[in-house]
Amino acid sequence: MAVRIQAEPFDTGVEIARLTAGSGAGAVVTFTGLCRADGETGTITAMTLEHFPGMAEEELSRLEAEARKRWPLLDCLVIHRHGRLVPGDTIVLVITLSAHRDAAFGAANFLMDYLKTSAPFWKKEESAGGEQWVAAKDSDNAARGRWTQK
Amino acid sequence: MKLRYFAWVRERIGRAEEDIALPADIVTVADLVAWLKTRGEEYEAAFQHEKIVRAAIDRAHVKPEANIAGASEIAFFPPMTGG
Question: What is the residue-level pLDDT of chain B in tens, covering all 83 positions?
């Protein structure tokens, strides 16, 4: 069980190998989020991710604990980067391990939906027109809402 | 009380954090926002659409009606856009 906030890039292959070694898992689901060139504010050259140190770790840990209550996970890792990133760079990594695939898929989906709306990170995009904060999307709130509907 | 600001809330207020002695009649986060808005244009700009701005007490999300008694740090920030 782990949550990491870091400026440095991560190596998805290394993280999967480290987590699965000796875990007994039958299913591993990995989600990697990347910085896109076609940003929310147009074609971007870079973005800066601001975060709330301390709260970011605590909030992701709360989400991870909730995911573990809902699904029988063998292990779980969330890494979120901060600082200046360019298109193609990795932003976020979620890895979930379980005996069977349903739990791993479900938990990874849940973690990403909640992370996007409750982890204290903010994107500012840089383009030819200057810098602009990214606005929160209704579709992200809707995606989160599906976990609380009957 | 230590107040912290992030993203465009921080930019509009012009500082990342500050220590402020709060009047005794401030009970909730909403009271605090209303009082901050009287402190100058920069606060008015930051809380112009105050329903959009989110708050956290001691690094946990709270609603505007949350009581601030016992808090050591209150943060204000826009809706989150990570991931």
Answer: 999 999 999 999 999 999 999 999 999 999 999 999 999 999 999 999 888 999 999 999 999 999 999 999 999 999 999 99
Determine whether the interchain pair A52/B78 forms a contact, defined as Cβ–Cβ distance below 8 Å: no
Other C-beta atoms lying within 10 Å of the C-beta of residue A149: 5
| Residue of chain B with shortest Cα separation from A34 | B83
- Numbered residues of chain B with Cβ closer than 8 Å to any chain A Cβ: 4, 6-8, 56, 59-61, 75, 77-83
Only one residue has tokens 């990874």, namely A108
Find the domain containing A97 and state its range: 2-145
Residue of B nearest to A122 (CA): B81
Number of domains chain A is built from: 1
ipTM computed for the complex = 0.95
Question: What is the enclosing helix (H) or strand (E) of A29?
Answer: strand A27-34
